[in-house]
Write a structure and sequence with these properties.
It is built from 23 helices and no strands. It is mainly alpha-helical. It has a single domain (16-492), classed as Up-down Bundle (Growth Hormone, Chain: A). Helix 5 runs antiparallel to helix 6 and helix 5 packs antiparallel against helix 9 (196-202). InterPro entries: MFS_dom, MFS_STP/MST-like_plant, MFS_sugar_transport-like, MFS_trans_sf, STP/PLT_plant, Sugar/inositol_transpt.
């Protein structure tokens, strides 16, 4: 069966009214972002805890406490990096399976499956007695993340056009909140010996439980009901989420769109057509660029990085919590600005700020961080300030927009599979960064930050020349108002082949 997501209800006749049902669905679905964020934040703190290292990575523990060991290489271990990265490799594969589940069984069931997979993964991690069980738990968590990321499409189908950006970004707001919660928990459990790390990993079950319970309360999207031929339920749900009695025009539009979607026998083949190339390229490139800002190198390994530059364990965990707080506050700023400021403006401003901070970190470490010995605390302090400024700019730009822009650009016949490519691209490069960053830090030293700064220049040029503005443009009007008007992408809109 084809995997297609229909319009999110942007037609003018429905206005921009926010109802109780929309709010509940948005909050519950966005809880999946809380799960995702918690796992991003928890791994770095756990991998810096001595009890965890003694249990699973004794060689790393020995290097960490060896005064003659190279500061840049103390945590360089492929299996330690696999503990973090395996989640994202599993999420990559799961994202494709999840798109089919969304189409055949609905968005609600997909979110329920995500929470259950996540709970099993949490149980395995918290009770792990060997590395194999630990990695297996991370893989199940990754499968859960792959399913949970479909929540962005759920929100797209629920949101009125006037609030499309703000409601979709609730998912992204929950990601930094999850990271912050993980940072705070890591700080408080680090001194609970010898099982503080088990508590940190086990508490990931709280957001998963919230998602499961919440998913029992939400309603399915009208799009999902109609495409599965539950027409009466689709009509009633449409009335509920818009708070209007007269939704006949929109209902008929969704039914027609569903009938057209049923004729799409090869959605992946359609995605490869010339007219789908602009959306596909931008969706993938946005995810690649998001990762090559270096954000997950910071989020995955912040405590490790801060210990590398001279902080002790407890101070490094506190510094990570400060960075997490900046991340949350800056994401709140984005929620306020998302439907008021052009996407391109936010991205370009962030490129400048990220470039300056990455180059500054490179300069500080090159001048002050020696390979061996204890470093001055001022060096670590400067690095923390630069990281905070960096995370601030990322949180109101490339972080949330990396997810929002792909979710609002694909036409109905390729929407689900197209977004799956975006999610899988994000997971692929998250996996790569998680798996190689500590090795890059060991090999390249401070130059690793200049590597990321170089990519920021490329990102800036891409936004200037190839990324069209999509703010306040209904999803179903994107082709005529955006792609056919763009100086470069309009040449791909002359494909008249039947879908």
């Amino acid at each position: 069966m084809p995997a297609v997501v229909i319009s999110n209800g942007n037609a003018p006749d429905l206005g921009g009214k926010i109802t109780y049902y929309v709010i509940i669905c948005a909050v519950v679905a966005a809880t999946s972002g809380l799960m995702f964020g918690y796992e991003i934040g928890i791994s770095g703190g756990v991998t810096s805890m001595d009890d965890f290292l003694l249990k699973f990575f004794p060689a790393v523990y020995t290097k960490k406490h060896n005064a003659k060991e190279n500061n840049y290489c103390k945590y360089n271990n492929q299996f330690l990096q696999l503990f973090t990265s395996s989640l994202y490799l599993a999420a990559l594969v799961a994202s494709f399976v999840a798109s089919g589940t969304c189409y055949n069984y609905g968005r609600k069931l997909t979110l329920q499956m995500a929470s259950l997979l996540f709970l099993v993964g949490v149980a395995l991690n918290a009770s792990a007695m060997n590395l194999t069980k630990l990695i297996l738990g991370r893989i199940l968590l990754g499968i859960g993340v792959g399913f949970a990321n479909q929540a962005a499409l759920f929100l797209s189908e629920m949101a009125p056009v006037n609030y499309h950006g703000a409601l979709n970004i609730i998912f992204q707001l929950n990601v930094p909140i999850g990271i912050l919660c993980a940072n705070i928990i890591n700080y408080f459990v680090a001194n609970i010996h010898p099982h503080g790390w088990r508590i940190a990993l086990g508490l990931a079950g709280i957001p998963a439980t919230l998602l499961f319970v919440g998913s029992l309360l939400i309603i399915e999207t009208p799009t999902s009901l109609i495409e599965r031929q539950k027409l009466t339920e689709g009509m009633n749900t449409l009335k509920k989420i818009r708070g209007l009695d007269n939704t006949t025009a929109k209902y008929e539009e969704l039914v027609l769109a569903s009938e057209m979607a049923q004729q799409v026998q090869h959605p992946y083949r359609n995605l490869m057509k010339r007219k789908s190339r602009p959306q596909l390229v931008i969706a993938i490139v946005m995810q690649v660029f998001q990762q090559f800002t270096g954000i997950n190198a910071i989020m995955f390994y912040a405590p490790v990085l801060f210990q590398t530059v001279g902080f002790k364990s407890d101070v490094s965990l506190m510094s990570s919590a400060i960075v997490g707080t900046i991340n949350v506050l800056s994401t709140v700023v984005f929620v306020v600005m998302v439907d008021k400021v052009d996407r391109r403006v936010l991205l370009l401003e962030a490129c400048v700020q990220i470039f300056i901070t990455q180059v500054s970190i490179h300069a500080i470490l090159t001048i002050d961080l020696k390979d061996i010995g204890v470093q001055p605390k001022s060096v670590a302090l400067y690095v923390v300030v630069c990281v905070c400024l960096y995370v601030m700019s990322f949180a109101w730009s490339w972080g949330p927009l990396g997810w929002l822009i792909p979710s609002e650009t694909f036409p109905l016949e390729t929407r689900t599979v197209g977004y799956s490519f975006a999610v899988s691209s994000n997971m692929l490069f998250s996996f790569l960064i998680a798996q190689v960053f500590l090795s890059m830090l060991c090999t390249m030293r401070a130059d690793v930050f200049f590597f990321f700064a170089d990519w920021v220049v490329v990102m800036c040029l891409f936004v200037i020349f190839f990324l069209p503005e999509t703010r306040n443009i209904p999803i179903d009007e994107m082709t005529d108002r955006v792609w056919k008007q763009h100086w470069f992408w309009k040449r791909f809109m002359d494909d008249e082949d039947d879908i």
